[in-house]
Amino acid sequence: MSQDYVSVNRDIWQEDAKNWIETGERLWAAPRPQWGNWGNPDDELRLLPADMSGADAIELGCGTAYVSGWMAQRGAKVTAIDVAPAQLKTARRLSEQHGQKITFIEGNAEATGLSDQSFDFAISEYGAAIWCEPKLWLQEAWRILRPGGRLVFLGNHPLSLLCSPLNGAPCDHQLHRPYVDMWGADWTEVEFEPSGICFNLTISGWMDLFDLIGFSVDRYQELFAPDWAQGIRAAIPADWAKQYPVEQVWHLSKPE
Questions:
Q1: CA distances from 230 to 37, 38, 45, 239 (A)
Q2: Is residue 238 predicted with pLDDT exceeding 90?
Q3: Which of helix, strand or coil describes residue 249?
Q4: CB under 8 Å to 181, separation ≥6 — which residues?
Q5: 3-state SS string over 7-58?
Q6: Does the pLDDT of residue 2 top 70, yes or no?
Q7: pLDDT, position 1
Q8: Which helix (H) or strand (E) covers residue 230, if one does?
C-alpha cells in the first residue's frame, strides 16, 4: 500500500456522501441504536453506556454522525470528527433537525488537534476503525482519552477480508489472501464496487498493538447477520454472514 490513503479515502467519502443521506436520516430517527451493516440491536451488544450524563465523548470518523446523536441523547457532551465536508454537512443538518448540540470538526482522526486527556469515551463504527492506519489513530485515541477512559470500535472481521476476492466480488467460502502480515486492502482499482483503502489486522496483531499503546481489552465481540437477513450488504452475502463473523467490536480502556 503506497497511496496517500488519507486523501484517497477523503475523496471517496466526499463523492459518496450523497449515497449515505438516507441511511443517516433513518439511523438518526431510530428509537434505539443499531450497529453494523445488519443493524444488530444495542440492547444485545451494549456498545454505549446506558447513561452518559456529563461525559465528554468523541466519535472518530463520524460520517453522518448518528452515533454522536445517540450519545447526545444519553446525556453526553459530544465532539465528532470526519475528513469529508459533505458528510459533515449532512451531520450538521441532522443534528439541528433532532435538536442535539454536537461540536463538529473537519479533520483526520489520526491527528485531531484536540487537547490531551479531553474525553471520557471514544467510539468509531466503520470510521477511523477501518479507514485510518491502526497504530496512528489508536495512539491518538489514547492521547485524547483521560485515564480510565474507554474506547469502543466496530469494523470488519478479519475473516471477512480473507474470504473477499481480490477483484472486489462478494465474500465467498474460499481464502483469497494470506492471514500472515495482514494489513488491510486497497479497493481503489478493483473490478466490482471500487472504494477506498481500508485497514485490518490479525487478532493477535490487534492485541499486540493494544499492548504496545497501553490499552486494556475489556471485551471482544464477533457479530453475525441476524436470522431475517437476506441479500448482500457491503459485499457480504447474508448467508455467509449468518455462518461466519462479519464484524468485530473491541472494548478497550485506558488504565487509571
A1: 12, 10, 21, 7
A2: yes
A3: strand
A4: none
A5: HHHHHHHHHHHHHHHHHHHHHHCCCCCEECCCCEEHHHHCCCCCCCCCCEEE
A6: no
A7: 53
A8: none
Averaged pLDDT for residues 178-197: 94
Residue pair 63/69 in contact (Cβ under 8 Å)? The answer is no
Residue recorded with cell 477480508:
161
Query: Nearest-CA neighbor of 136 among 109, 113, 117, 154?
Result: 109
CA dist., res. 116 & res. 142, Å (int): 9
Q: Which helix (H) or strand (E) holds 93?
A: helix 85-97
Say how many residues make up the chain: 256
> What does the block give as the cell for 219?
471485551
| pTM above threshold 0.70 | yes
Report how far residue 211's alpha carbon sits from residue 195's, in angstroms, rounded to the nearest whole number.
31
Cβ atoms of 134 and 212 within 8 Å: the answer is no
- Cα distances (Å, whole numbers) of residue 73 to 78, 105, 150, 200, 205: 10, 20, 19, 31, 35
Give the DSSP per-residue string, 94-111: HHHHTT--EEEEES-TTS
Pairwise CA distance, residues 52 & 37, whole Å: 25
User: What whole-number distance in Å separates Cα of residue 166 and Cα of residue 161?
Assistant: 10
The total of other beta-carbon atoms located within 10 Å of residue 51's CB is 10
What are the beta bridge partners of residue 105? Answer: 81
Rounded-to-integer distance, Cα 218 and Cα 215, Å? 9
C-alpha cell at 178: 494470506
- 99 conformational bin, left if phi > 0, alpha if psi -120 to 50, beta if neither: left
The one-character DSSP state at 161 is H
